[in-house]
């Protein structure tokens, strides 16, 4: 199987219309215009509920330097609505050094630092980002897109199942006081209906 390197297209973006929200833009995080500190604060807010349950994920309190390091391990994308970042995820190709055996498989890409601004949750933004991640993986020759979430977070596992993910492993990552559920689904071969690619636009011109 041939795995294609992620092309460097800082202007790549997708736009869609979500009912009741207007235009949602998905684009690469651009450090020339975006702030690692602001992205980190968004992740802190997105993961605060898990932290309140005693499930302390890295994204709940990590420094901006760690957010940047983890994002640069793959391709970091943000969701924009009404001119502000309301969600993010980082998609990585095969991680041959991962402590998770499933992530080491050549056919598997994975999602990390996936978070939605709390007051923007349950509006379809997370679904849009996950659909895009599946397409990103397929475009680069991967057949599976995977992620992990705290095993005790039944509400998150239930959400991922509604998006087509299935449980493939349970892993105890170093430094975490809980088991993580590893879930995976087939990568999408084409864009989800309703999305339109827009390339060549300047960052911020569609927000």
Automatic annotation (TrEMBL):
A GO MF term: N-acetyltransferase activity
Keyword annotations: Transferase
Record Gene3D superfamilies: 3.40.630.30
Domain of life of the native organism: Bacteria
PROSITE patterns tied to this protein: GNAT (PS51186)
InterPro entries hit by this protein: Acyl_CoA_acyltransferase (IPR016181), GNAT_dom (IPR000182), NAT_camello-type (IPR050769)
Protein name: Acetyltransferase (GNAT) family protein
């Amino acid at each position: 199987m041939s795995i294609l390197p992620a092309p460097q297209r800082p202007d790549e973006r997708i736009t869609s219309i979500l009912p009741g929200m207007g235009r949602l833009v998905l684009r690469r995080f651009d450090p020339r215009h975006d702030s690692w500190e602001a992205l980190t604060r968004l992740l802190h807010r997105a993961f605060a509920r898990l932290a309140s349950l005693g499930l302390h994920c890295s994204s709940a309190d990590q420094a901006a330097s760690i957010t940047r390091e983890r994002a640069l391990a793959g391709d970091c994308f943000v969701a924009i609505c009404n001119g502000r970042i309301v969600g993010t995820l980082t998609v990585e190709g095969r991680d041959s050094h991962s402590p998770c055996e499933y992530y080491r498989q050549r056919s598997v890409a994975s999602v990390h630092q996936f978070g939605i601004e709390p007051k923007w949750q349950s509006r379809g933004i997370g679904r849009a980002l996950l659909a895009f991640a599946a397409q990103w993986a397929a475009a680069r020759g991967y057949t599976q897109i995977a992620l992990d979430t705290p095993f005790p977070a039944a509400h998150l596992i239930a959400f991922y199942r509604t998006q087509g993910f299935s449980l493939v492993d349970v892993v105890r990552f170093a430094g975490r006081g809980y088991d993580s559920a590893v879930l995976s689904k087939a990568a999408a071969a084409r864009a989800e209906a309703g999305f339109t690619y827009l390339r060549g636009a300047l960052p911020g011109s569609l927000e």
